[in-house]
Specification:
The structure holds two protein chains of two kinds.
Chain A lengths: L11 H11 L1 H18 L36 H37 L1 H15 L3 H12 L3 H28 L2 H8 L4 H37 L11 H8 L8 H28 L5
Helix pairs in contact in A: 1-10, 2-3, 2-10, 3-4, 3-6, 3-8, 3-10, 4-6, 5-6, 6-8, 7-8, 8-9, 8-10, 9-10
Chain B lengths: L1 H25 L7 H6 L5 H10 L6 H13 L13 H36 L4 H15 L2 H15 L15 H35 L2 H8 L4 H38 L5 H10 L3 H29 L1 H5 L2
Classes of the chains: A mainly alpha, B mainly alpha.
């Protein structure tokens, strides 16, 4: 639809951005992410209560004007805890995926472009790590590293790493046979220059799609670890640890369980929508 | 067939070795002296030395690994610090519980995922297709432990239809066993159903646009016959492979589901072990899950070949 509006000479990137914006689902997702992200970033400056302030006179109060989302079993204001919890969830999702890409992409490019025994070692190791289910590996790692938000991010990053290695490797292998790589080689560029200047920018689009979808998985993984008590430690809130407490007060204070779960669901839907939208926008076949 | 099987089995060996190295090295991440943890209150130097010798802790790292691996290959995954039972025995004891949960969850996933996926493909780009896509997106995005909590809230706390927890072995009372597992299985199968739905839809769309489907239509078969006996049968192959692969995800998802519904299975075992600092059990569970996952992968490969005559001919 928008293609008719676009000038014919638009670059592939402009076309992709235009298609992404034209995708209603992706736009909704992006809006949700921007709003929740902004609230999370601005948490210290917002006129909300101290998320860790307890009040014995306001224990498990239903939502009211004084506490818009109610209070929990220690009298914490749930609105404040939801907003500070967003920081933990978003940070965990973004940091762990960034870490996984930073390590995974170079490994994948090297394995795919150079091949040989380096490829053999990298592929075998990442295959082995893929044989361990994501969450079980993250639980085991957090158990041995010790429970904390930072360690759960490391555990999630390590569990997500093989996906990026494999994807980058496959892309690099495909790009390796392109004419422009042959051209770069024939003018005397070394493997490092070819990998950084030609392979890297060309493997980026599919990695971007995978990264967005993996942020969604990582946010659920962090919530799961925190729910099990292996992520964010008290008194600081995270959506997962709030649910862990909430499950003990289901009949007296159901709202304690409703808000954090809805928030996780919304953010994960948002990242999935943007990821799906990005895939469609970056797919050259769909033009 | 046998050559394929042999080749795949051989390829699994290095994978398993790397996993075992990782699982072994996990314990080296622990701060402090493991012997002190094992000995507990007993700090007698002689006992500590005995333990060090028993677990080859004075040897260089590669030798320690070798000793550990040889034990593991003999089925000795160590002793649980808490219950003093062999780790393997603990795992074998809990496995049937999780297996029942996983099989019921898979049944749910297939019963929901395949019909909806076929429906979406047949009614492509209609309202029905969009609704199915939305259901799939929601299924993929909802954290299953939250879904479990909400179901307990509505079905158990408010309506009182099903119990919120409690486990009854199938062999003792099948009916109660199935009843208590109904909610957990639905929670666990939900994300899988979404995945299967999406794959069924795209597999069916691919098949429906192929030439032989046009031929089937041209020779006057009803749409029902075309979809069910021609298209669906061919779309089923990738779905079955996917199902086998997703079984591993089920084991991981079971960790949270069992925690919420307090089901004494494999997943509860690893979580309890984490909190009791029962590291040998954690290692054992990771190792066994990986072995199970690799075996399922192998099975999926073999099944794909058996179901697809063209792949069979290429051997």
């Amino acid at each position: 639809m928008t293609d008719t509006v676009m000038p014919a000479a638009a670059s592939p990137m402009h076309r992709a951005i235009a298609k992404l914006i034209a995708n209603r689902g992706a736009l909704v997702g992006l809006t949700i992410i921007v709003i929740i992200g902004a609230v999370a970033l601005l948490a210290p400056y917002l006129p909300i209560q101290n998320p860790n302030a307890t009040s014995w006179s306001a224990i498990r109060k239903a939502p009211s004007l004084a506490h818009l989302l109610g209070t929990d079993e220690l009298g914490h204001d749930l609105l404040a805890r939801m907003i500070w919890g967003a920081r933990a969830s978003l940070a965990a999702g973004l940091v762990s995926v960034t870490l996984a890409i930073t390590v995974g992409m170079p490994l994948g490019i090297v394995a795919g472009y150079l091949g040989g025994w380096i490829d053999l070692v990298i592929s075998r190791v990442s295959e082995a790590f893929m044989a361990m289910p994501f969450l079980i590996m993250a639980i085991a790692l957090s158990a041995f590293l010790g429970p904390s938000l930072t360690n759960s991010m490391i555990a999630i990053a390590l569990s997500a790493l093989p996906i990026f290695v494999r994807l980058t490797r496959a892309q690099a292998q495909a790009i390796k046979t392109e004419d422009y790589i042959e051209g770069a080689r024939s003018i005397g560029l070394g493997p490092v220059a070819i990998m950084t200047r030609y392979i890297f920018p060309n493997v980026l689009p599919p990695i971007l799609v995978q990264a967005t979808l993996t942020v969604a998985t990582a946010i659920i993984a962090e919530a799961s670890l925190s729910f099990l008590g292996l992520g964010q430690q008290p008194p600081w809130p995270s959506w997962g640890s709030m649910l862990n407490v909430a499950k003990n007060f289901l009949d007296q204070a159901p709202w304690m369980a409703i808000w954090p779960g809805t928030a996780i669901f919304l953010v994960v839907v948002a990242f999935n929508l943007v990821g799906d939208g990005l895939r469609d926008a970056l797919d050259p076949r769909s033009n | 067939m046998t050559t394929l099987l042999a080749r795949r089995l051989l390829l699994a060996v290095p994978t398993l070795l790397i996993i075992s190295m990782f699982v072994f090295l996990l314990q080296k991440l622990l701060p402090g002296d493991p012997v002190l943890v094992m000995a507990g209150e007993d700090r007698d130097p002689a006992v500590l030395e005995l333990l060090r010798a028993k677990y080859h802790l004075n040897d260089p790292l590669p030798l320690q690994y070798l000793a550990w691996l040889v034990n593991a290959l003999h089925g000795d995954l160590g002793i649980s610090l808490r219950t003093n039972q062999p780790v393997l025995a603990l795992i074998v004891e809990k496995l049937p519980v999780t297996l029942q949960l996983a099989i019921m969850a898979m049944t749910f996933a297939l019963l929901i995922g395949i019909p909806l996926g076929v429906l979406a493909a047949v009614k492509r780009n209609t309202l029905i297709d969009y609704i199915v896509s939305l259901i799939a997106l929601a299924g993929l995005s909802v954290p299953n432990f939250w879904l479990g909590i909400m179901l307990i809230l509505v079905v158990s706390v408010k309506l009182g239809w099903l119990p919120a927890s409690g486990y009854q072995p199938f062999s003792v009372d099948p009916l109660i066993s199935l009843k208590t597992m109904l909610m957990p299985a639905f929670v666990l199968g939900n994300a899988l159903a979404a995945s299967i739905m999406r794959h069924t839809r795209s597999a069916m769309i691919g098949v429906l646009s192929s030439d032989y489907i046009r031929t089937a239509r041209a020779k006057g078969l009803t749409e029902r016959e075309v979809v069910l006996s021609h298209a669906f049968r061919n779309a089923l192959v990738p779905i079955i492979t996917l199902g086998a692969l997703l079984f591993g995800e089920l084991l991981a998802g079971a960790v949270l589901t069992e925690q919420i519904f307090t089901i004494p299975g494999f997943g509860k075992l690893i979580v309890d072990a984490v909190f009791n600092r029962d590291y040998a059990v954690v290692q054992g569970v990771v190792l066994c899950t990986a072995v199970g996952f690799i075996s399922l992968n192998l099975l999926a490969d073999v099944m794909a070949v058996l179901l697809n005559p063209r792949l069979r001919a290429s051997l």
